[in-house]
Write a structure and sequence with these properties.
The protein is of the alpha/beta class. The chain has helices spanning about 5-10, 15-30, 60-75, 110-125, 145-150, 180-185, 190-195, 205-210, 220-235, 240-255, 255-270, 275-285, 290-300, and strands at about 35-40, 45-50, 80-85, 90-95, 130-135, 140, 155-160, 160-165, 200-205, 215. Helix 6 (about 180-185) packs antiparallel against helix 7 (about 190-195), helix 10 (about 240-255) packs antiparallel against helix 11 (about 255-270) and helix 12 packs across helix 13.
């Protein structure tokens, strides 16, 4: 059993954890366009699946609302450390906004609401989740689907995945953060190519080489490799993962390296003086050699 699960077991009896898990599923499974699942082997991991495979998991207003709701709920679940965002089926992660929505966007205020309410709210819900959000990309990841992926902390894709931003083919621009986040996630000249070209057939390998994806794995064996990564990250202390996400996000916003370093120092100090860490440090003060041995063991487990 990994360390995070061991910590949970130590403080929460199995009967209570079963009750929490059961009621959590009951309370959060009543969605029409998404699926929410707690990992049956590790309650620190959950998966949110965009579930409109017949529409290539395109986003309509209901899905936008449900994504906002589930990510906000997950944010405040102290037992969770990792969220996997995926698409149902093998044809698409998500192909962006549902074309059935677009006729309504001819009305000016409705179009503004789609961008500044539906779109922006979803982006913020994912970005502000405080958990490590990992995008699992299979099939097509296009337009608003790629923009949702850009809100994740990590992105892993199958070799067969295809990605792109297609909005310019309709005479418009990416409106859910593509022109803002893409140049911050990869070299700007390559980001411009994605936006200007309107291509929908970039291979996962091409996008990885352009500097966007975390990793690309062969289709055969993808699930196993992806699971290894998720398990490894979920084994870390949830509050440390949360602080790492916060510090790096604020470092980007800070504007200078000195500000970023100050944010980092404050984050480390906060973690170092947390009660549970101090309890561990007290043990190491009594047995100094134990710190070195324990750290070496943890480093080996993370390989």
């Amino acid at each position: 059993m990994r360390r995070s699960s061991a910590i949970i077991s130590a403080f929460i009896p199995q009967t209570i954890r079963n009750f929490i898990s059961k009621n959590k599923k009951t309370a959060m499974s009543d969605y029409k366009t998404i699926l929410y699942e707690i990992d049956p082997k590790d309650p620190t991991i959950c998966q949110i699946t965009m579930n409109r495979p017949e529409k290539h998991n395109a986003i309509n207003r209901e899905m936008a609302r449900e994504l906002c709701e589930v990510f906000k709920r997950v944010r405040f679940d102290s037992m969770l450390a990792v969220v996997v965002l995926a698409g149902a089926g093998e044809k698409a992660f998500c192909t962006g906004g549902d074309l059935d929505v677009f006729p309504s966007l001819a009305e000016h205020e409705t179009a503004l609401n789609w961008l500044s309410r539906d779109g922006l709210d979803v982006q913020r819900a994912i970005q502000d989740c405080e958990k490590v959000v990992i995008g699992k990309i299979d099939g097509h990841c296009l337009a608003g689907g790629l923009e949702l992926a850009l809100c994740c902390d990590l992105l892993y894709a199958k070799e067969s995945a295809r990605l792109g931003l297609t909005e310019i083919n309709m005479g418009i621009l990416p409106g859910w953060g593509g022109t803002a986040r893409l140049p911050r996630a990869m070299p700007v000249f390559r980001a411009r190519e994605l936006v200007y070209s309107g291509r929908k057939d970039y291979t996962a390998k091409e996008i990885y080489e352009m500097g966007l994806l975390t990793r690309v794995f062969a289709d055969e064996g993808f699930e196993e490799k992806f699971r290894e990564i998720v398990n490894n990250i979920a084994s870390k202390k949830p509050i440390a993962l949360r602080m790492a996400k916060e510090v790096m996000a604020r470092s980007f916003d800070g504007g200078s390296i000195e500000t970023a370093l100050a944010v980092e120092r404050n984050g480390i100090q906060w973690l170092q003086y947390a009660p549970d860490i101090q309890a561990i440090m007290d043990m190491y003060r009594e047995k100094p050699g134990e710190l070195t041995r324990s750290q070496k063991e943890k480093n080996r487990e993370s390989r």
